[in-house]
Amino acid sequence: MIKLAFMGFRHGHIFSLYTYAQQTPGVQIVAACEEDPATRAELAKTGVVAITHDSYARMLADSGCDAVAIGDYYGKRGAIAIEALKHGKHVIADKPLCTALAELDQIEALAAKNKLQVSLQLDLRDGGLARKAHELIRGGAIGSVHGIVFTAEHPLMRASRPAWYFEPGKHGGTLNDIGIHAFDAIPWITGIPFARLEAARSWNAFATDVPFMHDAGQFMATLENGAGVMGEVSYFTPDSMGYSLPQYWRITFFGREGILELVETQRKLMLAKNGSKEPVYPEAAAGNPAGYLKAFLAEIEGHPQPGGLCTADVLRASRVALLIQHAGETGQTHVAL
User: Fold this and answer.
1) How far apart, in whole angstroms, are the C-alpha atoms of residue 233 and residue 242?
2) Distance CA 173, CA 309 (A)
3) Helix ranges restricted to H, 54-200
4) CA nearest neighbour of 314 among 102, 125, 56, 87
5) How far is 217 from 77, CA to CA, in rounded Å?
6) CB distance 49 to 6 below 8 Å
7) What are the structural domain ranges in the chain?
8) N or C terminus: which one in the chain shows less Cβ crowding within 10 Å?
9) Correct CATH for 2-116 of 3.30.9.10, 1.10.760.10, 3.60.140.10, 3.40.50.720
10) Which residue, 170, 174, 158, is CA-closest to 36?
11) Do the beta carbons of residue 142 and residue 260 sit within 8 Å?
12) Over the stretch 96-111, which tens digit does the pLDDT of each residue have?
C-alpha cells in the first residue's frame, strides 16, 4: 500500500490525480494540505477534497506518507518537491515540476541519492491517438522521421485562470508549462531524443497589463537523428472557442515514406503514405487513463513498466523544457539539450 499525501490544490489538474488515486487499488490518500487560506476556504465549500493540514511541514512530519503529490502554483513546486525528497518521499506532480534549472539539479541529485521516484502528470502519451502514433512510427509506417511540427494553442481565459498565473514569479512561461508535454511525448512516440535547441522565443502577447507573464512561446529544435521540430505553445486561441479548435495539440510527423498527423480535438489520425493517392485514418489505440500514475507506482514497487513513464523520462523532459524556456527568455541559440 502506497500512502500518498497531497500538497497544494491551486491548479485544477491536480484534482484528476486525486480522483485517480482514490480509485486505484494499492493507494491510500493519508493527508491533504493547502497553505493558501482562500483556496482552503473554497475547497471547504466544494467538499471535493478533505483538507487535513494547513502546514506542509506538519504534514510531512505527521502523515506517515510514502509519496507527495504536488498541485501548488508552478513557482512553488520545486521547493515542495525538494523538501519531500529530503524527507525520503517519492514525488508526483502536475506539470511543470519546477521553474528553475537549479531546482531541477537539486531534485535530480536528491532522487538519485535517496533512491526515490519522481513523476509528472504527462498524460499526452496516455491518450489513444498518441499511443497509436507511437505504434505506427515505431513500426516504420512513415519511414525515418525528418520533421515534426506541432501546435498546442490554448485560450487564455483570463477570468477563469488562477490569479497566480498573473503574479510575478509564479507561472514561469508557456514553453515550460505547455511545451513539456511535447518534450516528453515526441521522444516517446518516435524513439528519438531531443539533441539541440536552435532558437526559441518567450514573450508577453495578450496579458499586456502584466508584462512579466510570458503567455506566448515558440521554438525550433533538432532531434538526435537530425530531424527538425517546430513548436507553438501560446495562449492565442480565442477564449470563445475554448479547447475546440484543431490547433490544440495538433502534431504532424513528416517521414521518408509519408506523413502522420494527430489532432486531439477531432480524435483523429491521418496517415498519408507515399505511393497512395488518398490518406487513410487509422483507429486510435485504447487509451491508458492514469497511465502516469500506474507507471509511478510500478517504479516505486521496483517493477518499472516497459515503455512506461519513468523518473528518467520526467527529469529529461523537465530539463529540456527549462533549457528551452531559459533560451526563449534570454535569446540564446544552438543550446545542447
Assistant:
1) 15
2) 24
3) 56-62, 74-86, 101-113, 128-138, 174-177, 179-190
4) 125
5) 21
6) yes
7) 2-116, 124-287+318-336
8) N
9) 3.40.50.720
10) 170
11) yes
12) 999 999 999 999 999 9
The answer to pTM > 0.85 is yes
124-287+318-336 CATH pick, 3.40.190.10, 3.30.450.20, 3.40.50.620, 3.30.360.10: 3.30.360.10
Structure-block grid coordinates of residue 268: 483523429
How crowded is residue 333: how many other Cβ atoms within 10 Å of its Cβ?
12
Helix, strand or coil for residue 34?
A: coil
Q: Classify each residue of 249-273 as buried b or exposed e, where b means 16 or more C-beta atoms within 10 Å of its C-beta.
A: bbbbbbbeebbbbbbbeeeebebbb
Residues in the chain: 337
- What does the DSSP assignment read for 177-189? HTHHHHHHHHHHH
**For residues 243 and 273, what is the distance between their CA atoms, to the nearest angstrom?**
29
